[in-house]
Amino acid sequence: MSAYTKCALGLRGLTILRKDLRSGGGWRSAAVLLAGLLGATLVPAAPAAAVHGAVPGDFNGDGYSDAVLPAPGANVAGQEAAGAVVVLYGSASGLSATRRKTITQNVAGVPSSAEPFDRFGSATATADLNRDGYADLVVSAPYEDTAKGKNAGLVTVSWGSKSGLTTATELPSPDKDPGYFGIDLSALGAGPGAKTQVLVGGWSGSALFRGPFSRTGTFGSVALEDMTPSVGSVTLGDFNGDTTPDPAVVTVGLSDLSGGAVYTDLGFADHPLAGNGRIAASGDLNGDGYADLVVGDPDEPETTSGDGALGGRVLVWYGTATGIADDARPVQVTQNTAGVPGTSERHDAFGGALAVADLNRDGLADIVVGTPYEGVAGKSQSGEVTIIPGRRTGALGTGSYSFNQYTAGVPGGNEAQDLLGTTVSVGDVNKDGKPELFVGAAGENNLTGAVWVFPGGASGPTAKGSRVFTAASVNLTQYNDTLLGGSGLFWVI
Question: What is the pLDDT of residue 304?
Answer without folding.
Answer: 60
